[in-house]
Design a protein that fits this description.
17 helices, single chain, 42% helix, alpha+beta
């Protein structure tokens, strides 16, 4: 059996659920004497209240700026003195806190993590400071055409859905967020029943579980036990449209093409991932060959499925000269349609399977990567076999299954096309692909 065909081993894992509902996962992984800790909560940006996009993100980043015991500077000093890193953030489905430290610092690190995640004070000055910082950061990022394209395609593809805004939020919504909003979000969504704590490193599972019981055993949901919120309703497939973000100063246009996808736990995941890799996942993919090698329309193109708990999208990302924007989109759509018609060939299937099977283990080389993967499995309710049997499941995909997944999800029917550039030059040529809406960059803030 070749190395690329072997099951991917995970280290020995112990699991336990504490009385308050916190799920604990400990992986004993030999090697460097480090430990990675990740606390994941189903409290992502999809739970942002109406008119408060970015509140989950603001809650996660301000939690570490002061607790009932320590100020923000004291937390910074404690983490630095331990030789550790402590970060926080959110995606669509989850909020997360991550720690990496020497293994001997684990008890103290768990002290800090428990304080930050379960007993934040949210000092008013810190909330206001970070809110203003995030607003300024978003405004600055909108100078980048790629950021404009990404925000525009999210809004169009997930129109009216909780996944339709970036996790970092919107300027107009964050501008109105206050400490009371942050505290209310934390009280409602940061509960042990919605959380999984993962510890990976050169540790003994029983010793780690004893530490976790002491630090987190008293954590209870505010106001008593509550039922964990499920994912939002599945998003509807996007309606066919073209969105032009008007940037008259540009000579290159950022392009996004999106169509309906599937949730991470879908049976389409492995066939879809393989189909996407065949179309635009590597340097030998069809889109690269057609758009870059044969026509010179772009230096780079990528396709991928963006998956979350409730659903997702299929996304093609690329760029080209303003005058060739419509041509690039037509060629890309033609390649997607051709794939759906004829399916993949045997040689490209084997080449792409080998590429995916060889690439996947590179994301499991460090304690931090393993901790992140185990936390993601918990958030999506997936078994360990999603890792250990990854190669088997990719290898088992037939050409017909890859083609059928493409037919269900590639942009051959309903799709959103986003182009960033001078509207006077690109809106007309793109009109043949669907009704065109021209928006100003500031509308995406």
């Amino acid at each position: 059996m070749s190395e690329a065909s072997r099951p991917i081993p995970l280290p020995p894992i112990r699991r336990e659920t504490l009385a308050g509902g916190l799920r604990v996962v400990v992986a004993e992984r030999p090697g460097v004497p480090l430990v990675a800790v990740r606390l994941a909560l189903r409290a992502g940006s999809a739970l942002d209240p109406a008119g408060r996009a970015g509140l989950a993100h603001l809650t996660a980043i301000t939690a570490r700026r002061g607790t009932r015991r320590w100020t923000g500077p004291e937390i910074d000093l404690a983490v630095e003195s331990l030789g550790a890193d402590l970060g926080s953030g959110v995606d669509e489905d989850s909020a997360h806190f991550g720690l990496s430290a020497p293994v001997e610092a684990l008890p103290r690190c768990l002290d800090v993590l428990a304080e930050v995640a379960t007993r934040p004070a949210f000092p008013a000055k810190e909330v206001d400071r970070l809110r203003r910082k995030e607003v300024a950061s978003i405004a600055h990022d909108l100078d980048e055409p790629s950021v404009l394209a990404d925000r525009a395609v999210l809004r169009a593809a997930f129109a009216g859905h909780p996944y339709g805004h970036p996790p970092e939020g919107r300027v107009r919504d964050l501008g109105g967020a206050r400490r009371a909003d942050v505290r209310a979000f934390h009280e409602r969504h940061f509960s042990p029943g919605a959380a999984t704590l993962v510890v990976v490193g050169k540790v003994e599972a029983e010793s780690v579980l004893a530490l976790v019981r002491r630090r987190f055993g008293g954590w209870r949901a505010a106001g008593g036990e509550r039922e964990e919120l499920g994912p939002p309703a599945p998003p509807a497939p996007p309606a066919t449209q073209v969105v032009v973000v008007d940037r008259p100063d540009l000579t290159q246009s950022q392009i996004r093409i999106a169509s309906g996808g599937f949730p991470r736990a879908s049976p389409d995941y492995h066939p879809g991932m393989l189909a996407s890799a065949l179309l635009g996942g590597g340097f030998t993919s069809r889109l690269v060959q057609s758009l870059r090698v044969e026509r010179g329309l772009t230096y780079g193109v990528r396709s991928r499925f963006v998956t979350a708990r409730a659903g997702g999208i299929f996304l093609v990302s690329t760029f080209t000269k303003v005058e060739s924007a419509a041509e690039l989109v037509r060629v890309a759509l033609g390649e997607a349609e051709r794939f759906c018609g004829e399916g993949p060939g045997e040689e490209e299937m084997e080449r792409t399977k080998s590429w995916l099977c060889g690439l996947f283990p590179l994301g499991l080389e460090t304690h931090d990567q393993v901790a992140e993967k185990l936390a993601d499995l918990a958030v999506h309710g997936l078994p360990d076999e999603e890792v250990t049997l990854f190669r088997d499941r990719v290898r088992a995909v037939t050409p017909e299954q890859a083609r059928d997944a493409a037919r269900r999800h590639f942009p051959v029917r309903e799709r959103v096309v986003v182009a960033v550039g001078p509207a006077k030059e690109i809106a007309g040529p793109l009109a043949a692909l669907g009704p065109v809406t021209v928006v100003k960059p500031r509308s995406l803030a």
